Amino acid sequence: MTCVAPTVAEALGLRELRDAIGEPMPEIVADLADAERLAILAPDALGEFAFGLWRDQMPYLRSLCEWRHVTLRSVMPSITPVNFATMISGTDLEGHGIRAKELDFQCKTLFDLLREVGRASAGFGQPGYTGSDLLARCSDVGATAPLNDDAAVEAVTLRVAEEHRPDFVIVQLGSTDDHFHKFGPSSPLVLPKLREMDQRLERMASDLTAQGYAVSMLSDHGQHDTGNPDHPGSHGTDSDEDCLVPCTWVG
After folding, report:
1. Is residue 154 a contact partner of residue 39, using CB atoms and an 8 Å limit?
2. CB 223 within 8 A of CB 240
3. What's the Rg (C-alpha) of the chain?
4. Global pTM exceeds 0.85
5. Which tens digit of pLDDT belongs to each residue from 25-83?
6. Cα three-residue angle 219-179-216, rounded to 5 degrees
7. Helix and strand element counts for the chain (H, E)
8. Rounded mean pLDDT of the chain?
9. What whole-number distance in Å separates Cα of residue 79 and Cα of residue 82?
10. What single DSSP character describes residue 56?
11. What pLDDT, on a 0 to 100 scale, did the predictor assign at position 13?
């Protein structure tokens, strides 16, 4: 996960993030280096474990991963605010200080690098989620969706991207995490939401690329099955189920 921000910075021609502990991923930089703008679409908790189980139910994401795919590892603890903060800073919890979405960064981020050269960023998410309370709050033209629904996040993201053309966009799509917590990532009950997410990613990527964005798709962390019927899915550990996430891209 620490490689995401350095990769974005290099692809967009920004200076290095001084506090980053990751390095740019050359295979992604090579494909996206000509992009004027870049977007990250992040379906929350869709790790390699769940993707491996249900990839045939997600034909769009599967097709992209068959073409271009790297596996990333979440930083600890493998929870949402920590890892979204890592995506835009290139460092871990000790470096960025974001244990909770209401906190402020103690290091430079991609948002700061863009501001320094007169460029803009945008973050998006549902009300009360990390995409809203951290990413939208700390970026330049980010916005909170009017409803607790990924369809609303999709709509506001595409509208703001078209109206303001921010150079960097990062979007939290939170419903996958919610459903994995409710049913467990290996339950067939998550399939309608995964099919819906796959279609949403295809629509958003198509719209954003038409606007001149290169688009990367990755998650912040995964989830594991707990065996507890009262709380079937969880995350936060250093297990592969919680930490390994797929990353793919299109430009």
Report:
1. no
2. no
3. 16
4. yes
5. 999 999 998 899 999 999 999 999 999 999 999 999 999 999 999 999 999 999 999 99
6. 20
7. 13, 9
8. 97
9. 6
10. G
11. 96
| Residue pointed to by tokens 């921010």 | 166
Q: Residue 46: which of 178, 148, 165 has the closest Cα?
A: 178
Residues 6+ apart with CB under 8 A from 163: none
Domains of the chain (ranges, CATH numbers):
4-250 (3.40.720.10)
Q: What is the pLDDT of residues 195-233, one digit of tens each?
A: 999 999 999 999 999 999 999 999 999 999 999 999 999
The closest alpha carbon to 160, from 184, 140, 132, 141, belongs to 141
Closest to 156 measured CA to CA, from 59, 9, 147:
147
DSSP-derived pairing of the beta strands 70-73 and 244-250: antiparallel
Nearest partner of 215 among 204, 199, 223, 226, judged by Cα:
204
The length of the chain is: 251
Question: Which residue, among 126, 135, 134, 176, has the nearest Cα to 155 in the 3D structure?
Answer: 126
Mapped onto helix, strand or coil, the DSSP state of residue 7 is helix
Amino acid at 73: R
The token pair at 162 is 């078209």
Query: How far is residue 125's CA from residue 127's CA, in Å, rounded to a whole number?
Result: 7
